[in-house]
Amino acid sequence: MIKFFLMVNKQGQTRLSRYYEHVEIKKRTMLEAEVIKNCLSRSKDQCSFIEYKDFKLVYRQYAALFVVVGIDHTENEMAVYELIHNFVEVLDKYFSRVVS
Amino acid sequence: MPAPIRLRELIRTIRTARTQAEEREMIQKECAAIRSSFREEDNTYRCRNVAKLLYMHMLGYPAHFGQLECLKLIASQKFTDKRIGYLGAMLLLDERQDVHLLMTNCIKNDLNHSTQYVQGLALCTLGCMGSSEMCRDLAGEVEKLLKTSNSYLRKKAALCAVHVIRKVPELMEMFLPATKNLLNEKNHGVLHTSVVLLTEMCERSPDMLAHFRKNEKLVPQLVRILKNLIMSGYSPEHDVSGISDPFLQVRILRLLRILGRNDDDSSEAMNDILAQVATNTETSKNVGNAILYETVLTIMDIKSESGLRVLAINILGRFLLNNDKNIRRAMELSFALVNGNNVRGMMKELLYFLDSCEPEFKADCASGIFLASEKYAPSKRWHIDTIMRVLTMAGSYVRDDAVPSLIQLITNSVEMHTYTVQRLYKAILGDYSQQPLVQVASWCIGEYGDLLVSGQCEEEPPIQVTEDEVLDILESILISNMSASVTRGYTLTAIMKLSTRFTCNVNRVRKIVSVYSSSIDVELQQRAVEYNTLFKKYDHMRPALLERMPVMEKVTINGLTEIVQSNGETESAVLETKSPPSGLQPLSQANDLLDLLGGTDITPVIPTAPTSKPDSTGGELLDLLGDLNLTCSPVSAPVPQIAQPPFLLDGLPSQPLFSDIAAGIPSITAYNKNGLKIDFTFERSNTNPSVTVITIQASNSTELDMTDFVFQAAVPKTFQLQLLSPSSGVIPAFNSGTITQVIKVLNPQKQQLRMRIKLTYNHKGSAIQDLAEVSNFPPQSWQ
């Protein structure tokens, strides 16, 4: 199950967030900051799937924007990875010329 | 009041803020404007205001005052209002707010609305944040919509049903009749959500699962759909990088997995399609890999036939070779999948991978292979072969503690000795740079050298080796710059042992050994000196001392056992493998092979503890020889002594000597000043992993005794300390005796052990007091 869907830029500013479970507002900012920290510290040849607390993060970088999806163990990580890409492609098609 | 700004303007404005404080200011200003606008009950701009509020909420600012406004928007007739209203409801409201119940009526009305989009909105919202009461009330409506022919609505209704079931599991049966026709749809959206619904049902209730397996003929239906997906040509709607709707494929595979688990009929029905998916899917893109990943998981989980399993293993093998970093995770998966049936096949793939992967993975892979082969090895020969392959391929990456376990394994397979030693010999002939390999090899050659030169071997054609050649290679290992100190230790001992196994080269061995008695390396020097002494004074004992090691009981890498075995022979060669309790990491255990001797004329046996090398405690053969003159010999390593000189025995000694030397946990010198030295040796309790037992030994190297010696210790608050009474209050001079005292430390939180010690004693007529802090505790003593 997808727990959350985030789009965060490199400076840590949230561009889009959607939570599918209730998370308190203060915790959300903390979570987002931690998540982006984890993603930024990964190098290019490291895997895009991170174990974070009790769920997994699947992230993908598009220029200065990180799309991060938090999933639990029942999801196929690679499928979610593709989903992110699909989503970005759709945004691109729909809004034409997407920039962060 | 001027018209409130639009959302886009707001976003643009906020983005211009350069600091966090600026942003906060802007937002507060806007919030105030919105609040006053709400108070005015302005209908026209309410939607805009709420949209802005939602944006601010997303950035992390509190927006609860907008909740009621959302409700008003939902109740409005305009679609744009409803849209924002429902979105706001999903984001701002949840079950904890009382306000949400007010929505129930609105949603009910909207579920029956004439416009499908409104109905869709209502379904979405209900599926997102519906509480159990709401779900109970509205479940009937949802079920009705599940049967409608409108695919747009049907798919949303299916997802909403998933949420309802999650909140109120009792309602599951209600949706059962509706599911009958769900899979007959052509629309992928409906298919997808239906599969999700079915998955949820099956996961939650075993009855449902049984029902679906038998009555519904679910499996054939799913198989048919999957087949269509794969076989159908290019369909632009569903295409992702050349594969038709991979997301649906993955979902179906997961549902098949749940259905096929522990059920032969279902598993049989899906065998074909799984094979087809596995072979037909392209792996050039990640999409294909995602599908294959799911397929492999499924194959492994159901009762598939062996051909299918082999296919799955091949796929995994391909994954491992793929350079994509994401695929490497398959490695962890494959270790988990190894079991008795497929171990040979898996091992082949894994060895392949070991060969080709990058160094960072090699250590983990090697350890994983060892673990797996130990658990599932079909035959001893295979096991040894596999281990040797790993050693030759990734020898330098193998963890140090794997060496003793390998040695122990080899001693266990008695009939394989000749074969093993031959292969090892051949392996190091060409190249002796890989330390673990060399260590194991030299140990084996030392033990079984006679088998090596005998020229007889059953398992493979024997090689003709002479004693000189063997000694040649061992000597070159000793001399080589590439050999680590530990390896040299192994080799020296091996050469020594050969002095009894080989018949004609005793003098050569003697020469080699005496060369090292002035080596700079303290460990080597000590060994060489001891062996020299053995040659000189105790030559008659040499054969018995260097006898073949007895078979050790099997200690698994996770093992807990304390094993003591003694030979029935004259000089008892006692093997003790003492392993630390399971509180430690499984692979950081050390097996110590100690040769302990109680000699006839030999008085105090002085154990040689490798205090100077805490990380090499694994697998060292510590030969203990007693020699009272050792203090005068050119040994500079500090030698902790046992409290009492034990066992002066004449005749046959049969009492083994034990010391708690380096029993997996290296000992430390806690204090060493003014001639007073205090050593800590550690033991962990098997029954209670938070207890560490520390035995302190205090020795005095000055010329006068230290009297009235009192040792006190203090630990941080999270620990508890128990100090037992010391052996005596006097530490005799010249290191001729020690005081022993036992400390028990309870460390329930497994924090880093630290201790402050206070020492008081009388020395040379004056009272001396000292405080010190001990912080060099080895991690194994408190983790």
TrEMBL record, chain A:
<keyword id="KW-0653">Protein transport</keyword>
<comment type="function">
    <text>Component of the adaptor protein complex 4 (AP-4). Adaptor protein complexes are vesicle coat components involved both in vesicle formation and cargo selection. They control the vesicular transport of proteins in different trafficking pathways. AP-4 forms a non clathrin-associated coat on vesicles departing the trans-Golgi network (TGN) and may be involved in the targeting of proteins from the trans-Golgi network (TGN) to the endosomal-lysosomal system.</text>
</comment>
<dbReference type="InterPro" id="IPR022775">
    <property type="entry name" value="AP_mu_sigma_su"/>
</dbReference>
<protein>
    <recommendedName>
        <fullName>AP complex subunit sigma</fullName>
    </recommendedName>
</protein>
<dbReference type="InterPro" id="IPR011012">
    <property type="entry name" value="Longin-like_dom_sf"/>
</dbReference>
<dbReference type="GO" id="GO:0006886">
    <property type="term" value="P:intracellular protein transport"/>
</dbReference>
<keyword id="KW-0813">Transport</keyword>
<dbReference type="Pfam" id="PF01217">
    <property type="entry name" value="Clat_adaptor_s"/>
</dbReference>
<comment type="subunit">
    <text>Adaptor protein complex 4 (AP-4) is a heterotetramer composed of two large adaptins (epsilon-type subunit AP4E1 and beta-type subunit AP4B1), a medium adaptin (mu-type subunit AP4M1) and a small adaptin (sigma-type AP4S1).</text>
</comment>
<dbReference type="InterPro" id="IPR016635">
    <property type="entry name" value="AP_complex_ssu"/>
</dbReference>
<keyword id="KW-0472">Membrane</keyword>
<dbReference type="GO" id="GO:0012505">
    <property type="term" value="C:endomembrane system"/>
</dbReference>
<dbReference type="GO" id="GO:0005737">
    <property type="term" value="C:cytoplasm"/>
</dbReference>
<comment type="similarity">
    <text>Belongs to the adaptor complexes small subunit family.</text>
</comment>
